[in-house]
Structures are given as C-alpha cells and as structure tokens.
Amino acid sequence: MRAALRDSEILFPAGTALAILAALLLDHLIYGHGLRVLGFPAGLGLVTAGLCLFRLWQRHRERRQADAAPALQPMEPTLALPLVPVLKAMLGLAASVPLVWLFGFVIGLPLYVAVYVKWRGSGWVTALICAGLALAAAVGFIELLDMPQPHGPLVWP
C-alpha cells in the first residue's frame, strides 16, 4: 500500500474546488445570490483548494531539496503527473454542468453521480447508493436554504 497520495490525487480535489468556485461566481453574477447563500460552499472550496495547492507546493519543494541532496541517500521514485487520468476525471466532472442544466439540480446531480460512479468502474449498487446520498444532500441543501430551484428544460413542473 502506498504511504502517500499521488500528485494527481491531490490535484483533482483542488481542480474540483476551483470549478465549484467558478460555478459559485457565475451563480452570483447570474442569479445575484449573496454571501448568505454562497458563503459556506465558497469558503469550503477556498480552504480545499488552498490546502491541496499548499501540499503540492510542499512536494515540489521536497523534490527540489531531494535533487540537491547527495546521492548517497536512497530516494523514492518521484511520480510524474499522469495527464490522461486527470483530464479524464476533469472531463467527467464537466459533464455535470449539462446534466444539471437539462434536468435541474435535484434530478441532474444524482443522475450525474450515478453515471459517473458507474463510468469509473463501480457496481450498480454503489452507483445507486451514491446517487441516493447526492439526492439527500441536494434536497437537504435546498430545504436548509429554503431556496426555490429552477427546473431544467427537460423537467416539467
């Protein structure tokens, strides 16, 4: 078992958090929601992205120091950033935007989660459990904020 995460495993949550921050900025610009609505997810996204980027910076610094250290010490191999898996994961994340737009937040988000989890190789039971959790989180989020959600063009009232 590996002792540490690969760079791509740290970069993915940072990229996800930055994508969520961009979506929240668009929400603020389009719908005009303020800090009361967007403050908690924006703060969580900033903290997540900041911690991930800080850890990547620490690793870069450690690698520079290891390169400058004498060759007598055994070094563990450095892991290069595998670009294809990161791009594949980010493309999968980007698929959530059209699904949420077409079906609305309550239907589109669980549908996206189910399809993404199944696409990444999990079984149907795991995908449906994850979709159920996403549905519960979406409904809970909407009820907590007492905010009407727009329906997508493929969902009729």
From TrEMBL:
Keywords linked to the UniProt accession: Membrane, Transmembrane, Transmembrane helix
Protein's UniProt keywords contain Transmembrane helix: yes
Highest classification ranks of the organism: Bacteria, Pseudomonadati, Pseudomonadota, Alphaproteobacteria, Rhodospirillales
Protein name: Tripartite tricarboxylate transporter TctB family protein
Transmembrane residue ranges: 12-31, 37-57, 91-117, 123-145
Keyword Membrane attached: yes
